[in-house]
Design brief:
There is one protein chain. The chain is mostly helical. Helices cover about 60% and strands about 0% of the residues. The protein has 15 helices and no strands. The chain is elongated and about 85 Å long. The N and C termini lie far apart (about 120 Å). The relative contact order is 0.06. Keywords: ANK repeat, Repeat, Signal. This is Ankyrin repeat-containing protein. It holds the Pfam family Ank_2.
Length: about 250
């Protein structure tokens, strides 16, 4: 009788140990279980930690966070989302990964710039191309006038063409009263100007001050741009001629 009781107690103890051991195993399909695993590993379940994996290209660790029900659109202590970090660092593969896992592309970074504007400023053309293609798919391409203006202003004819080919508006007056063609010319950006003209923008559009595209080209002394503009019908305004002569 005593032997049976000892055996029964041993069986119970073994069963309890087995249950505890099983409960310590991570269930990848249970977010709570994954979070518990991260805690046991001393890994903080925070946006800052998730962002650190971007710099390391560690999609395995990122995937573990997502299994723990991490919000992929969360922002870090500086106000940047994972997409903002990936864009700023030019990490196109990580950006693709984030998009595939539901990251939104309509946000801004901590400086208030859209993701596309940040990609253009940092000359991350592969990233810009990916963003543009996704915005074309979603119909958001029509909201990219500020990005068009930036590409024209910085003389990035390659990105300007990406935008134009995707259906972005190339002739929207900005808050500064300039059209993209004005910004391209004011900056002496010949290739950007040529592309815009090839797409049929108005070469005689006036800025908010009343000056034409050719007025600005002459004001800056860009002889190559002046010749091209005149060849395509650009004219000085009467006000400019009166003030500065032909």
């Amino acid at each position: 009788m005593k032997t049976k009781k000892i055996l029964a107690l041993g069986a119970c103890a073994l069963s309890l140990l087995f249950t505890v051991a099983c409960s310590d195993e991570m269930d990848p399909n249970d977010p709570a279980s994954v979070r518990k695993h991260l805690t046991k590993q001393g890994i903080p379940f925070t946006p800052n930690k998730f962002m650190s994996y971007i710099a390391q290209n560690d999609t395995a660790a990122m995937s573990l966070f997502l299994k723990a029900a991490y919000d992929i659109n969360s922002t870090d202590g500086n106000g940047n989302s994972a997409v903002a970090i990936a864009v700023n660092k030019g990490k196109v593969d990580i950006l693709q990964y984030l998009i595939q896992h539901g990251a939104k592309l309509d946000g801004t970074n901590s400086n208030g710039k859209t993701y596309l504007e940040d990609a253009i400023e940092n000359k991350h053309r592969e990233v810009a191309q990916l963003l543009i293609s996704k915005m074309q798919e979603s119909g958001e391409i029509q909201s990219t006038a500020p990005a068009v203006a930036l590409a024209a202003k910085t003389g990035d004819a390659e990105v300007l063409k990406m935008l134009g080919d995707a259906g972005a508006p190339l002739e929207v007056r900005g808050a500064d009263s300039y059209f993209p063609i004005h910004l391209a010319v004011k900056g002496g950006n010949y290739d950007a100007m040529v592309y815009l003209i090839s797409k049929g923008v108005d070469v005689n559009a006036k800025c908010g001050q009343g000056y034409s595209v050719l007025d600005w080209a002459k004001n800056e002394g860009y002889t190559r741009l002046i010749a091209y503009l005149k060849k395509h019908g650009a004219k000085n305004t009467p006000a400019y001629i009166k003030e500065f002569g032909k």
